[in-house]
Amino acid sequence: EVLLTPTKIYSRLLLPILRSGAIKAYAHITGGGLLENIPRVLPQQLAVELDASRWSIPAVFSWLHKEGCLSDEEMTRTFNCGLGAVLVVAPPDAQRVLRQLQVHDEAWIVGSLAHKQPGGSAVVVRNLKQSLLNASAGGQLEARNSERHENSITPRKRTRVGVLISGTGTNLQALIEQAKCSSSSAEIVVVISNRPGVQGLKRASLAGIQTRVVDHKLYGSPAEFDGTIDRVLEEFGVELVCLAGFMRILTGTFVKKWTGKLLNIHPSLLPSFKGVNAQKQALQAGVRVTGCTVHFVASFKH
To answer: What's the rounded Cα separation, in Å, for the pair 166 and 200?
Structure first.
């Protein structure tokens, strides 16, 4: 219901103040959030510094930040984070304008202008993460607990996941980013590639995840190859196996052992656009609806 509430139209409230001549610039914060809307009303040499602790952030933004695993930049580039409109006012006029606004709606003095540094951002938002935490229900208590008792809180048990790859690891990267979220139920403990030197191994290493190479070319049979992968998974205590761009067919023995614990992900709605470059295939086909597929892998008797 909160997300479906129509945006406020500020023209009636702001017209008398705008006509008074006290407003130097006015930005309505819509799509593009704080980072893209405010610079549109500023001279190129100026930047604005906002302090998120100075205004009230609605709890829905805290929820979006947490459940969407969104970065601070994504939050401020996409949402207004509680600032529906921003007015630029000279310091001597600020308190008077603030009082006029507060008669009709919530308003705050949230920041100041400064000369933009070469190569610097036009908008800097301070204290956003803490303010989003405080906006959540019980956020202040949660913040104190995380600061004072970080080591005493028992973390939620996460499922130990092993990921099998063969190439660049673009699907793997999405899994890594999701696993970083506090709301994730998964922990990637090992990434196994059947090809050495691929980009996916580098992605895993950069994320601090253990990697192993089990080169299929070095094994005399598929059973030997699968058996080696199985031993690596057991070594790391893997509870769930995810095939993310893994380009080998696994034996029935391996699949049977991991039945109910073996997932495959593919960046298209199967059976359309199989194999590599699924997104490119979908674009070239001109489809209007696309997505991804996640399914359990199972073996069947013929």
So the answer is: 8
- Amino acid present at 52: A
Q: How high is the mean pLDDT of the chain?
A: 88
One-letter amino acid at 148 equals R
Interior/surface letters 109-134, b for 16+ CB within 10 angstroms, e for the rest = ebbeeeebeeeeeebbbeebeebbbb
Q: Which of 126, 131, 104 is nearest to 114 (CA)?
A: 126
- Per-residue b/e over 28-66, b at no fewer than 16 CB within 10 Å? bbeebbbbbbbbebbeeeebbebbbeebebeebbbbbbe
Of 198, 285, 280, 210, nearest to 245 (Cα)?
198
d(CA 156, CA 285): 43
Catalytic residues: 266
The pTM of the whole model exceeds 0.85:
no
Q: Is 180 exposed, middle or buried (0-12, 13-18, 19+ CB in 10 A)?
A: exposed
| pLDDT 10s digits, 172-197 | 999 999 888 878 889 999 999 999 99
Both tokens of residue 17? 């103040």
Q: Is 222 helix (H, G, I), strand (E, B) or coil?
A: helix
